[in-house]
Every structure is written in structure tokens, then in C-alpha cells.
Amino acid sequence: MRLKQSQRRMFLGMLAAGAAAIPGLRGQQTPYVPKQSDRPEPLTGEEPGFQSIFDGKSLDGWKGDPKYWRVEGGEMVGEITPETIIKSNTFIIWQGAEPADFELKVDFRITEGGNSGINYRSKVVPDIVTPSNQFAMRGYQCDIDGRRRYTGNNYEEKGRLFLAVRGQVTRVTGKQKPIVVSSLGDPGELEKAIGAEWNTVHIFARGNILMHSINGRLMVAVIDDDQAGRPAKGRIGVQVHVGGPMQVRYRNWRLKLL
């Protein structure tokens, strides 16, 4: 049967509307059917759904003090020099969204004396020490430092402070110190997974479960049961920290909203 033009348009519209339910359309794959012999296996290539949030050429879509942040060689660079020593932490902040549940991947490299961190589910707050600082943040942070004493920790900047240190699975209630409920391994052994050059961070934020992985090793996991104190969503930003001169570099920012 040959369709009239009006019927053809109607049919195509119905097909487009129902495409998500039809196997093979809109990139859908045949559903996976597990076999008894199947076991989990490493991912080959990048998992679908991640989008770049840094173009490698400019700070478009990000906001921070240009005295401390620039783009160089395709990398986001945060630097404190002897002439620009700060008295309080300052951030460069992604302006694209305030994610709740997401996964974030990014590579970093930091100088030995450097101190930085990746904030998420965070908000901009007034800076009492440096009132002119428009880029202070409060919220969850994947800690990063050049001497690898704190790298991987979950530290809530300007909030509840240490929620989990490397090697810990913790529960946070808001009524006492965070409780260690399990171990992910020896902190010293986990430190060996963090290199002096480029490292890859993978942050998981799903509901009240927060996990920080570095170079494929899970560093901390937090079960945040503090309903009154936990942030449900917020900004993503990265930090240059008070202290001496330092430099931190970030590249390959990839975000997947859930």
C-alpha cells in the first residue's frame, strides 16, 4: 500500500515519538541477558554519556579570578606566585549547572607543595577573611595535595570538614563524628596508586552515596545520612589553597548527569 503525503507525515511522527521503545532505534542496543559464566570486567574505552565541560582553549563556562586561573597548552592552570599569595582559598567555578547525581572524571597534576581540591554539590559563600574574594565555596571536596597526604579524602570545605580519609567507608549522621564502617585498604598502599605526574579522578555522587576513585582505585566512600546537613546539589569548582607558591593543572573534564 502506498501512503499519502499526509499519512506518511503522521506515520513518521508516530515512529519518532515511539523510537525510544523500539529496539535498535536511537542507538539502543539489544538488552544484556546475563549468563551463569559472566563476571564483571574492565570497561573498554569511555563509558557513554560523558560530556566535556572544558574546551581546552578558554575559560568559557567557568568563572574565577584571572589572577590565579588561566588556560595553557589545553590545560586549566591554577597558580599562586610569590606576588599573589592568598589568605583564603579561592576557586574557579563551572557555570553550566548545579548537578545533584552525576559522575565526574578529570585529570590533574600538582606541584609538590601544592594544595587543591575538586568541589561538588557546593555553593558560593561570603569570605570573612578576604571579603573581596567572590569565589569562596562550601561543599563536598575531593582533596588533592602534592605530597599526597590528603589526596582522595572527602573534606567538606567550610562545612563538616573531614567526612572520610583515604581507605575509609564512613557513615555521617550529623550527631557525632563520622563513623568508620569498613575499610577499602591500607592508606599507605592506596597512596602508591597516586603518581607524581598526571592522575585521573572519578567522582560518583548518587543520592547520599559519595565515592572518590583515583587511577582506578577507590579511595573513600561516604554514606551521608545527615539529612539536615548534607547538600543535595550544587556547583562544581576547583581550588587554589592558602600557603606558598603552587601550581595545579586540570585537563579532560568529563561530566555525566544521572
Give the tally of β-strands.
17
Residue share in β-strands: 35-45%
CATH architecture of the largest domain: Sandwich
The shape is: globular
Q: Which stretches of 5+ consecutive residues score pLDDT under 50?
A: 14-27
Total domain modules: 2
What kind of sheet is the major sheet? 10 strands, mixed
Summed over residues and divided by their number, the pLDDT gives a mean of: 90
Order of helices and strands: HEEEEEEEEEEEEHEEEEE
Provide tags for this entry.
258 residues; mainly beta; ten-stranded mixed beta sheet; 2 helices
Describe this structure in words.
By secondary structure, the chain is mostly beta strands. The protein has 2 domains: 29 residues; 205 residues, Jelly Rolls. The chain has 2 helices and 17 strands. Strands 1, 3, 4, 6, 11, 12, 13, 14, 15 and 17 form a 10-stranded mixed sheet that branches. The longest helix has 13 residues. About 5% of the residues have low confidence.
